[in-house]
Amino acid sequence: MSPMRAGCATLDELLAIMARLRDPERGCPWDLQQSFATIAPYTLEEAYEVAEAIERGDLAALREELGDLLFQVVFHARMAEEQGAFDFDAVARGIAEKLTRRHPHLFGGEALADATAQARRWEELKAEERARKGASGVLEGVPLALPALARATKLGQRAARIGFDWPDAEGPRAKVAEELAELDHARAHGTPEEVAHELGDLLHAITSLARHLQVDPEAALRSANGRFESRFRHVEERARETGARDVETLETYWQEAKARERARR
Predict the structure, then answer these.
(1) Are 12 and 92 in contact (CB under 8 A)?
(2) Residue 153 · residue 207 · CB < 8 Å
(3) Which residue from 69, 78, 196, 238 puts its CA 20 to 30 A from 167's CA?
(4) Residue partners of 28: CB distance under 8 A and separation at least 6
């Protein structure tokens, strides 16, 4: 049996298992109770676990998590098939057609100079697809369910396409300072709602600065979270050794952890 045929057989087995789980008479009670809405949080969770395995460089975990994410696709497709909407084959066929359409330099005879031209053409094709679906504004189609930092970045990228952007990083850097000053004013004179409003504006400005610095803010924050966890574990360990609880001593341990990081670079 060829590897491709073996892969199809394995996928057929997964689809058959899903059908059995959702069998109205002999299926799993929990699986039968689920809907698109109840399964969606699990889909997001599995996508995050894929990202975590990649972040760790753990290929064994990545294989497992990709399987879990594939099962989520199969689950949604099965529920749609039960409603007569579409099935897994339609999902696979749809993405195959989309990829073919979005790579005209490979499948349509177009000539593109480099990766930059390819990325620009990709966005043009996506815009054409959105227009065919009736979308008119450049911001339409940015998923509401995206993590807020990622969505803010995409909104900024879309707005920049029609020139609503700064020419360089100095613009968003000044905007960050402006929003920080407005946050300080709200803290001193405003309501909790106004403080939250200004803090949101500050975070949004930071994503614009990150975009101009060519830094993924979501990845940067994940990395910062990892550093915080590592440093705090050192603080906890030293505090257990000494019994210290005052903030000045704990800050000293924090600085020790940072110094250890610098020494390892």
Answers:
(1) no
(2) yes
(3) 196
(4) 21, 22
